[in-house]
Amino acid sequence: MSTATAPARRVRSRVWGPRIALLGPGTAWWLVFFLVPVGVLIAYSFFSRGPYGGVIYEPTLKNYARALDPLYVGVLWTSVRVATIATAAALLLAYPAALFIARASPRWRVPLLVLVILPFWTSFLIRTYAWIVLLNPAGLINRLLRGLGLVDESLPLLYNEFAVTLGLVYAYLPLMVLPIYASLERLGPQAAEASADLYASPAQTLRKVTIPLTLPGIVAGCIFVFVPSLGNFIVPDLLGGGRTVMVGNVIQQQFLQARDWPFGAVLAMSVIVLMFVVLVVQAQVLRRTQEVEHGRPA
Amino acid sequence: MRDRFFRLLALVAIAGLVLAACGSDDAGETPPAASDGGTTEPVDISGTTLTVSNWDAYMPKSVIKDFEKETGVTVEYAIHTTNEDIMGKLTGANGTGFDLVFVSGPFIEPLVGLGYAAEIDHSQIPNIANLDPEATELAFDPGNVHSVPYTWGTTGICFRKDLLSETPSSWEAFHTAAPDTEGKMTMLGTDRWLLQPALLTLGYSVNTTDPAEIEEAKAWTMEAKENLLAFDDTTFYSKLVSGEASLVQAWDGWCEYGRLEDPKNIDFVIPDEGSDLWVDNMVVMESSENKAAAHAFIDYILRPEVGKQIVEFTFYKMPNAEVMSAVDPAVIEGYPTLAISPAELFEQEVQTDLGEEGTILWTETATEIKA
Predict the structure, then answer these.
(1) What is the CA radius of gyration of chain B?
(2) pLDDT (tens digit, 9 = 90+) per residue, B316-327?
(3) Which residue of A52, A161, B34, B279 is most buried, as measured by CB atoms within 10 A?
(4) Which helix (H) or strand (E) holds B361?
């Protein structure tokens, strides 16, 4: 790298021009709209709340100490628990659906995929309100169950953790289906056919061939569902009736009600750290799958 | 090469951070200079733009259009969903971006403290004389130095007569549920109103910052939570209409939205322990470069024939005797909370700012209650 010869320099300039042109806009976007805001957030987390809100530039660690209060650790734990359950439920629903779409005749695949993303055409808020109509004690589901004589009294379907989980699964299910579908599509039917030729039962093929080879899609889907679930504050507010508090709600309360931006920043940081951990796990899984695909070095 | 690229990237990032930090730092120390505060000469405001932020559906569109027609001012009408929302926008932009904002009483003191609120020039608002005397001596801004009241009201119990065996008369209703209210009640979830039923029942101030009193109120509210259907700030009246709820904590005007849909069965009561007096106000921003138009807008709102349209549209009372006597008597008869007198309202405790420690303690308590 130290002494570059003339031809090498020419090659480099030929390569770097378009590279910068291609990378530039994305990098600038990422810098201005992601890195700088996160940097501001980190900076705020070390300062103090002003007497009337806002930020006073006096360095302190007290916001971090306060975040360790069992109250906030408990809220974070509830959020992780709810987001995990929602992710698992979404995976159980999405995998068979993705498999069905991938195995459908090519003519049907596009319409089926359109159906998966169809809900995104309407506002998330309105779709969440729609669940209130469905789940409330006098709502459609309860009336149907009572009408069929399956239950005597309305089931408590709304304003609890169940409703929050359901709302999250519903909101983010397409984000699980799509990456799994993509990896099934990429895998193609050959591996499963080879497995069947070798006398594996369909269940064995699914367990030992299809699922391991689509693991990257599964992990990507899990992240797409887990991450926004963890930070969501609309669903706990509307479907949880304000009785299930998740970390997104507390962050919102700190920025708005308490006007305590530094403490809100600390809580937001804790979510960012959690997501970072999740991404590290994803990288590990990806690396291992690649080792499997390309053969493990002996 | 790659290293250098990343080093450059890091440099740019750091430069960006420093710039951002410096920018807000500078702005934090020097509040924007006042431009024309205190002038009494009539200024030609036609052709100017006035940026206002108010709650959604809190003013008929016709009022804004008429003002534009009369003055030649273009009104940019922004919407905020809560006081906290507009406070966040103002804090983020260091008090700039709006000429006139609508906020509730407890937020006047922070706006003044942050240097965002301009002094009101009474000479530019002749109609300020229409205000009820009670509205000129409100605890959060006596003498209307920084704010002019827009609407006011109280919080009470909104209920379904046909679903309850007896008329509720006490905040205790939330705490000791009856068979016809168990799991069929909602309370307001925003910090300030969340603790109010408890504080009023226990005989404490709705502005208390005493940790022991708040602790007691927390315990009361957590017991009450067991009886609730939900905490609800936005759809409680439709829950009442649908019968999902039979008794809810409600602002007077919002209860009237329920009565609008079910006039026979929905009613409102101020409990025996009393309640709060909340006031929504108009505040001119110190950073505004069009204070003359902001004052003209306030003056316009305080006119009887304009205020009347607002009251008949929002079902909220204005602290303005001229306006209230201009309101169609049939409307007041149909929506009786409009008939609550200023004197009766003034018996309730005015909500004021809780201060730094108090605000933090209240929010933490609200989180504990809901978690």
Answers:
(1) 23
(2) 999 999 999 999
(3) B279
(4) helix B355-370
The residues near B42 (Cβ < 8 Å, ≥ 6 apart) are none
Q: A233: which 2 tokens?
A: 């504050």
Q: Write the DSSP string, A106-118.
A: HHHHHHHHHHHHG
**Sign of the four-CA dihedral B353, B359, B363, B369:** negative
Determine the distance in angstroms separating the CA of B304 from the nearest CA of chain A, rounded to an integer. Answer: 35
Task: Quote the Cα angle for B176-B239-B207, to 5°.
Answer: 55
In A255-284, the residues whose Cβ lies within 8 Å of chain B are 255-261
Q: B97 in the Ramachandran plot: left (φ > 0), alpha (ψ -120 to 50) or beta?
A: left
| Secondary structure class of A195 (helix, strand, coil) | helix
Whether the CB-CB separation of A243 and A228 falls below 8 Å is answered with: no
Residue type, A99: L
Say which of B88, B111, B360 has its CB closest to residue A256: B88
**Range with the lowest mean pLDDT among A213-217, B50-54, B220-224?**
A213-217
In chain B, residues with a C-beta closer than 8 Å to the C-beta of A255 are: 88
**pTM for this one?**
0.77
Q: Tell me the pLDDT tens digit for each residue of B164-210.
A: 999 999 999 999 989 999 999 999 988 889 999 999 999 999 999 99
For the cut 50, the answer to whether the pLDDT of residue B100 exceeds it is yes
Q: At A108, list the tokens.
A: 């049907």
Which one of A71, A132, A261 has the shortest CB-CB distance to B367? Answer: A71
The Cα B371–Cα B367 span in angstroms is: 6
Q: Which residues of chain A have pLDDT under 70?
A: 1-14, 292-298
**How wide is the angle at C-alpha B283 spanned by C-alphas B153 and B100, nearest 5°?**
115
Amino acid letter, A11: V
Residue in the block written with tokens 């003209």: B296
The minimum CA-CA distance between A40 and chain B, rounded to whole Å, is 7
